[in-house]
Amino acid sequence: MRHLRAAFSSIAKLLRRQASLAGGSALAGACLSGAALTATLAQAQTPPTDSKKGIYSCTTADGRRLTSDRPIAECNTREQRILNPDGSQRATLPPALSPEEKVRQEAHERHLAAERATLRDAIRRDRTLMLRFPNEAAHQHGRSQALDDANKARLSSERRIKELAQERKPLLDEAEFYKGRPLPAKLKQQMDANDAAVEAQQQLIENQKAELVRINSRFDAELARLKKLWGGAAPGTLGPGGDGKAANGSNGSEAAAAAASGR
Questions:
Q1: Cβ neighbours of residue 258 under 8 Å, at least 6 residues apart?
Q2: What is the pTM for the complete model shown?
């Protein structure tokens, strides 16, 4: 601040010197400039005010009315009013939470955060689904591709079973020579391996049939959901099962507002 005052003083002296050389009009201008500089200096010297300061007022449990320029420790468990200098109320400072209340509040906040995360995930999934399938023709094409892949795997297993049946014929022919007698170890091992391979392929076929059912069920559920989204339902408002309930358990309008804001 000392340096600032010295700088203003030097500028004022220079203006006065110019005014004495230029005459009365310049003197008047110099005086005005000096006045402006003085006002600026005074403003710079004025300490800034803290707009957050206020007057705290409360009534204690025994009926005493207390006032302070900061939160009142004796009213820590009571509501405190924050007043402006003119006495009007600016805000309210709620009572401090007990340890049990703080634990409950933190648990509630975690629950709300989890609900918001669930809703964001639902919005993202719905938007991704609509980008992937912009219309019913695109969705049907996706279903056909998925079913085609599963059918190819099933047909491959069926072909392998036929090949194993061909491989078994010479083994059965050889086993005819040992009817009523124990089979040689090598022949028995080959026949057991053939049986195990056939059984494995049969299990694969059953799994592939179940996969076809799962694919159709998934695409049926997607199509039902997409029809609602194509019809104007906001992403994230249909819930996990597409029943029209918001993903976070709120009503549809709240979820729609969140979806519109992109949260």
A1: 116, 119, 123, 236
A2: 0.52
